TrEMBL record:
HAMAP family: HscB (MF_00682). It comes from the Eukaryota. It holds the Pfam family HSCB_C. It is found in: Cytoplasm; Mitochondrion. This is Iron-sulfur cluster co-chaperone protein HscB.
Length: 235
């Protein structure tokens, strides 16, 4: 009864509009509880977390924090989660982050920050290398969608494609002249360009099965590229 009278008075005084459901204000205890659930700086105890703008340093004491485990490579390198990546922007971001977290800049800091800088630097290197190359970028993007390609996938490939791979490998094994090597390189480069364009279209259409098949073929040709590099090394 008393609550009803109070509500009526509040409406009359204009503090409680008619038709608006009453909500309890967040108490100081509830606010403190929400704050306590967020990550805190290892050095000063101040609140810090993935939701904050600066994900590397504590906003209060500027101590370097541990890498954010919830952050993927695309977010870390400030790229859209897409197969199409601006490689110039990617390189700029890589250089920016290394100037920020490279171990050389933490030689006079605490051991904790030295350890964190090593982890950050390794993570940045891995992210850069992964997103720079079309094959590793595509495989990583598939992984983010819960799809991984086993190492041995011969049984899933069509016979015609496997025969093509065998023929190129045979030509590479028999190649003795620089002209023969260049011819094989040209063939492989053209195929990889074709695959890269096709897998980009597949990702844009969210056709992950098609992307998986194309990336598997790209991996075969990537192996041939490695063989070409090894053959070029003088014994």
């Amino acid at each position: 009864m008393w609550r009803g009278r109070v509500g009526a008075l509040l409406r009359v005084w204009g503090f409680w509009p008619t038709g608006v459901p009453r909500r309890r204000l967040l108490s100081c205890d509830a606010a403190s509880q929400a704050e306590s659930n967020s990550p805190h700086c290892w050095n000063c105890g101040g609140p810090w977390g993935p939701g904050r703008e600066d994900r590397f340093f504590c906003p209060r004491c500027r101590a370097l924090q541990a890498p954010d485990p919830t952050r993927d490579y695309f977010s870390l390198m400030d790229c859209n989660r897409s197969f199409r990546v601006d490689t110039a922007k990617l390189q700029h971001r890589y250089q920016q982050l290394q100037r920020l977290v490279h171990p050389d800049f933490f030689s006079q800091r605490s051991q904790t920050e030295k350890d964190f800088s090593e982890k950050h630097s390794t993570l940045v290197n891995d992210a850069y290398k992964t997103l720079l190359a079309p094959l590793s970028r595509g495989l990583y993007l598939l992984k983010l969608h819960g799809i991984e390609i086993p190492e041995r996938t011969d049984y899933e490939m069509d016979r015609q494609f496997l025969m093509e791979i065998m023929e190129i490998n045979e030509k590479l094994a028999e190649a003795e002249s620089e002209a023969a090597m260049k011819e094989i390189e040209s063939i492989v480069k053209a195929k990889q360009k074709e695959f890269t364009d096709n897998v980009s279209s597949a990702f844009e259409q969210d056709d992950f099965e098609e992307a998986k098949e194309i990336l598997t073929k790209m991996r075969y040709f990537s192996n041939i590229e490695e063989k070409i590099k090894l053959k070029k090394i003088p014994l």
